[in-house]
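Title: Prediction job returns without error message
Component: structure pipeline
Severity: low
Priority: P3
Assignee: unassigned

Description:
Job completed but the reporter wants confirmation the result is attached to the right record. Sequence as submitted:
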Amino acid sequence: MDHISKENQKSTELSLEDQVIYGSLTTLAREVGHRLKRAAYSSLIRESDDYGAAIVSQNFELLAEAETTPLQMGPLAGYCRGVVETLAASGETLNPGGIYLHNDPYSGATHSPDIGAIAPLFIGDELFGFVGTAAHHVDIGAAVPGTCIIKAHDTFSEGIRLRAFPVELDNKPITASWRLIESNVRMPGLVVGDLRAQVAACRWGQYGFQKLVERYGVEKLKRSMQRLLSVAELRMRDRIRSLPDGNYKAIGYLDGYEDTGEVDIPIHVNLEIVGDEIKVDLTGSAPQLDHAPINMPFYGTTDMAVLLTLRMLLLPETVYPNLPHNSGLFRPISIIAPLGTIVNPIFPAPTIGRFCGGQMLSNLIVRALQDILPDTVCAGCSTTKAVTFSSTSKEGESWIYMDVTEGAYGGMQGMDGLDAVDVLYANTKNNPIEDIEAHYPLRVELYELREDAAGDGQFRGGFGPMRDTRILVDGFISVEGDGFRHAPWGLKGGKDGATGGVVIFKDGDKKGDLLSSKIDNMSVKAGTVIRDLCPCGGGFGQPELRSKELRDRDRADHLVTK
């Protein structure tokens, strides 16, 4: 408990002023995120909410965050550390009026398409912390259009690398920096527009922070921040202490690559609980894949999959509604991830397709704790899948659409799994059909839940969606998915949910051909239909215990026909 001073060991309660200050910081982070969303060009940000915003301390601890997807907000402290360390390695220091772009997956970023914009928060000459935004960008100039890249030789082949890259210094834009980015992406208007929205949102964050300093004073803010971090840490330690000591294990498998024979990639999880601390050991997980981008950066993906899932399981907001969500929650948790494995690869192994692996790791944390948290855990959840459609016009202009399709939760004690939602450490939304068809030569011809596909149980799994999309011009598709070979598991006697799939219908074919979970820029003709089948959640509890009322309701909703 080295992080907690004797003064702050006395109480896990916050003063009214501390709560007001935390509310002010959280509101500021949400305002930053809202301004980014409203100014963005890409549907990934303005519709799917694949972005985040946060306030971070000078010691790289998360202080407050927006309300979007956890995987974009939680890592922002790592982005800030990466910017400072990258500058220091070159003998540089932070420019008080600078804003830096950063997407290095070996220096805090989640993966290269998630570009962070980081701005320092100075009070006079003193650095208080940072305001940051992160967002997924539809193209970063890799070998193939979009960011569903499932074949990559190394990290250099995954697109432009921005390492503490200044786009503004002394509060003035650097034209050459923006020109470099514009020259290296396929949709410069959209990508640069989104990046400028991130920069503008950070500037608002700096302005809002100065208003907080004027209201409370710097010393009061500092003292309150330390109490907020300490209280969060103490709450997490209290919760861990309430659990039985022991080792809790789970193993899961990623699909891998059927074309190369690198399939059924294992991830091992061993949670050791001793007193008020948890050690998560990932020893036994597969070696890294040197030329396949499903490796997970330790900082930004592996650590967040573990930390965010444990926070969700141990301190759910339904039970702890006013608990500060900051880095104090993570202090009692340590992670062992052997270097050179899929959960901690060595540079320059590619990592752009790390998302499904992170979701599997999050799933396994839940599974490992099933016996000591029987009323909190759920059965196996699906993995989110991304499908990219792209083409180039006769005039040489590219268009790229990335469809982030949702999945389903597994059932849990007292509750069926949620249908057609993002799961676990992510929280993105689907893109409205009207928006897709208004902006791209695509037509969505079917969008519904998959009948008879959820895992049966006393509390059934959630139903994943099925979507048919017709491309109206000659173009290309890429698929980054998982869960085609391994189904979301049932728990406590529940049945497994259905696996996912992608089916392609060509030239009026009614049967279609099932594709693998990873497709690299496949050429398709105008009129081709892509059917996206999302996995469905596993069931919880013995199926014979499911009530007649619930079964009748599923039949009435035409979700179950048998």
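Comment from assignee: result matches the submitted record. The longest helix spans residues 188-216.
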